[in-house]
């Protein structure tokens, strides 16, 4: 069960990250906040705490009307996603379930 939830999150996160980048280009802060909130909750549930913390920070930047650090924070979130994806792939390669 957990394995399928992790795989689903890893598969869906790139679309959310892309949507956030597109929203940043359009200055659509509500879309960024909404995706950051979803990622924060999902990542936290999976104990991907660094990713959850970064997504939560993005959400707080939007709520605090601080859009300046968003581009850097979105890149940090994408990096946390890459780390999580690499970890999941390594676990699969080792046959750990």
Task: State the gist of this model.
The chain has 97 residues and is mainly alpha-helical. Helix content is 84%, strand content 0%.
Descriptors for this entry?
97 residues; mainly alpha; elongated
Write a structural description.
The chain is mainly alpha-helical and 97 residues long. The protein has four helices and no strands. α1 runs antiparallel to α2 and α3 packs antiparallel against α4 (70-94). The radius of gyration is 14 Å and the shape is elongated. The model has no long low-confidence stretch (mean pLDDT 91).
Summarize model confidence as the mean pLDDT.
91
Give a count of the beta strands, DSSP E runs of length 2 or more.
0
Strand content: under 5%
Oligomer: single chain
Q: Helical percent range?
A: over 70%
Structural class label:
mainly alpha
Query: How do the helices and strands follow one another from N- to C-terminus?
Result: HHHH
Largest sheet: none
Give the low-pLDDT segments.
none
> What is the radius of gyration?
14 Å
The separation of the N and C termini measures 10 Å
The dominant shape is elongated
Give the count of helical stretches: 4
Provide the fold topology.
Blueprint: H1 2-25, H2 29-45, H3 49-63, H4 70-94
Helix pairs in contact: 1-2, 1-4, 2-3, 3-4
């Amino acid at each position: 069960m957990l394995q399928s939830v992790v795989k689903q999150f890893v598969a869906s996160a790139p679309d959310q990250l892309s949507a956030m980048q597109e929203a940043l280009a359009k200055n659509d802060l509500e879309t960024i906040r909404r995706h950051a909130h979803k990622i924060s909750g999902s990542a936290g549930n999976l104990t991907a705490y660094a990713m959850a913390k970064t997504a939560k920070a993005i959400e707080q930047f939007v709520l605090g009307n601080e859009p300046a650090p968003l581009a850097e924070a979105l890149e940090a979130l994408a990096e946390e996603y890459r780390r999580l994806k690499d970890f999941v792939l390594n676990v699969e390669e080792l046959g750990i379930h």
